[in-house]
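Duplicate of #3305? Posting structure anyway:
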């Protein structure tokens, strides 16, 4: 049986914002996992690159408290192998930008 995942309205807005900032088609990711297998930083990350994009697809804002987005080295090893041509470094950068803005506001 297929398990359907629901995305909240707040989650949809979060996803739309990350798509807009990054310019990447996040919803095109089919979770093949190639990026996680290609990433030289994956062993240091708390979630894998494919989990980072999955959380973003689902609008799960707890992705902002993960270490992975800070560790992306923009090496493009994932991008060149991604069957959907997704640049994860742009997504990580967008997540960092949102988190940095939230931290600045909290100060
Ligand atoms: S390689 Fe591309 S399509 Fe596959 S999980 Fe990573 S981002 Fe998604
Ligand atoms: S660009 Fe970032 S997520 Fe992609 S392989 Fe390099 S370090 Fe990993």
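Output from current build:
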């Amino acid at each position: 049986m297929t398990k359907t995942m629901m995305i909240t309205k707040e989650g949809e807005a979060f996803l739309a914002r990350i798509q807009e900032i990054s310019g990447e088609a996040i919803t095109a990711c089919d979770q093949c996992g190639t990026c996680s297998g290609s990433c030289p930083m994956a062993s240091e990350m708390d979630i894998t690159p494919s989990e980072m994009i999955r959380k973003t697809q689902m609008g799960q804002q707890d992705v902002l408290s993960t270490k992975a987005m800070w560790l992306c080295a923009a090496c493009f090893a994932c991008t060149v192998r991604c069957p959907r041509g997704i640049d994860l470094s742009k997504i990580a950068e967008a997540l960092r930008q949102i988190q940095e803005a939230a931290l600045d506001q909290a100060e």
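Confirmed duplicate; merging threads. Residues 33 and 51 are 9 Å apart (CA to CA). DSSP finds six helices and no strands in the chain.
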